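Tokenised fold entry reproduced for absentees:

. . .
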Amino acid sequence: MRRVIAAAGMLSLALLATGCVQQSRQRVIVASPEPGRGAAITKRITPDGVGGLFLPDGSRVEVDRAGGFTLPNGDYVRRDASGALNLPNGSRCLPDGQGGFGCP
């Protein structure tokens, strides 16, 4: 009788563990912004809380009086009149309303 109860207990634990593993797996669905094109990857520039910014690669930069900053490679990023950041490659990072910027 003890063997039957022990076997039933082990079976219950195995089924419970299987259920937990199945629940932890999540499917991620990426929606393409336009048919035929891949999903747009958005990188964020976030405020560091002391007047600087964290770049998507994790480096930190100091913001100057004009609102721009110098990248680690020496290129300058300027802020335009609308508050967006104009990158040296021609891309624009738009303000996200949380003090940061979303970049293409």
Q: What stands out?
A: Helices lie at 2-24.
